[in-house]
Design brief:
34% of the residues lie in helices and 12% in strands. It contains 10 helices and 11 strands. It has a 6-stranded mixed beta sheet with strand order 6-7-11-8-9-10, with helices on both faces. Helix 8 links the parallel strand 8 and strand 9 (284-288).
Length: 349
């Protein structure tokens, strides 16, 4: 179960990498609706977020198909997220940074404490990407206080075979991705192996592991697409801060040598200042979404165009040039993936 979806809410719930069908999602919604209707009228007040409803739906579906393992992504936070209702055996903590400041906490260390508190007394292993010193200290203290265990770190140079050769149509493919996504991939692979070990299950054969990891395709994470009906190639990346945008720009320039236009969508709570710095000197269109929970009120550079997302079409994107990059919040990148009809039904084989 992941949050949010790529192109539809079916994308949030997957079995072996494949999204549930419309009929399966409808059936799960009906079952949740019946359960909610059956709650007593005098129940205490409470709140279940949309991502929490999808977690419940995903767990119900996993039970229905007798899944061996659940992988749950927190919608936002840790202690305060519905994912904490399911005590984890293994926890993986990706790099913690200042996203959702003022919502999850007033500082990055407060956000780190909130995220680490997803662990439970019975959690058997916690793996973390490398973190800045103060964040690492807070994570370690929180985890030890709740679960009584230390934090493990995946090796930064994994033991998988080297990457496969460069393909004719894109960057190198292989067991783990390049760029900023590699940190998360290393963390996920290490957490999965740790869970297998704790469950008493054998590690996969190297040949099968290589084949499965080499099949992973993550739309919206340095993914390359052709805009339908045009000759425009588009890079889609869910970069939301200066570091991520700079890394994606580097990949674009490495592939193309130059960039004709950038589409970017960063609500007020994202690193807009960092994006402005990273994109200095490039032609940019700033895209606003109509969602009530997102705000787009901060001042923009004078040279940036501003566009509402409803005006985005394949034709309008194709008119921006032959080499276009789209960066920003996952909701926006989902719209871009829709526009280019990206394959999101199955993420790996």
């Amino acid at each position: 179960m992941t949050s949010p979806g790529y192109r539809s809410n079916r994308d949030r719930i997957r079995i072996d990498g494949e999204a549930v069908t419309e009929a399966e999602l409808r059936s799960l919604g009906e079952r949740l609706g019946q359960a909610m209707d059956a709650l007593p009228a005098d129940r205490p007040d409470g709140y279940l977020s949309p991502s929490g409803l999808f977690i419940l739906a995903g767990v119900l579906h996993a039970r229905r198909v007798r899944a061996d393992v659940l992988v749950l992504e927190a919608g936002m936070g840790g202690r305060s997220d519905e994912v904490s209702l399911f005590p984890p055996d293994v926890v993986a903590i990706a790099p913690v940074f200042g996203e959702h400041l003022g919502v999850l906490g007033g500082s990055v260390t407060e956000i780190a404490e909130e995220k680490a508190a997803v662990v439970a007394p019975g959690t058997r292993a916690v793996l973390s990407a490398r973190q800045p010193g103060p964040v690492a200290d807070v994570l370690a203290t929180t985890v030890r206080g709740i679960a009584g265990i230390g934090i493990e770190h995946p090796p930064q140079t994994p033991a998988e075979p080297p990457a496969l050769p460069r393909t004719a149509t894109g960057p190198p493919t292989g067991p783990l991705p390049d760029g900023l996504s590699r940190t998360g991939a290393e963390l996920g692979a290490a957490a999965a192996r740790r869970l297998l070990d704790l469950a008493g299950r054998p590690a996969p054969a190297p040949e099968r592991l290589r084949a499965v990891l080499a099949s992973v395709r993550l739309p919206g994470r340095l993914s390359w697409h052709t805009v339908p009906g045009t000759e425009t190639e588009l890079l889609a990346d869910s970069a939301i801060d200066r570091e991520g945008i700079s890394a994606a720009l580097s990949a674009a320039l490495s592939r193309w040598g130059a960039l004709d236009h950038v589409l970017i969508c960063l609500p007020d709570h994202k690193d807009l200042d960092g994006a402005i710095t990273a994109l200095r000197g490039l032609p940019v269109t700033y895209v606003r979404l109509p969602h009530d929970h997102l705000r787009f009120t901060r001042p923009l550079p004078a040279g940036w165009r501003v566009l509402d997302s409803g005006a985005l079409t394949a034709e309008s994107v194709g008119g921006l040039g032959r080499r276009v990059a789209a960066f920003g919040t996952v909701y926006f990148i989902g719209l871009v993936l829709d526009l280019v009809d990206a394959g999101t039904e199955r993420l790996y084989e």
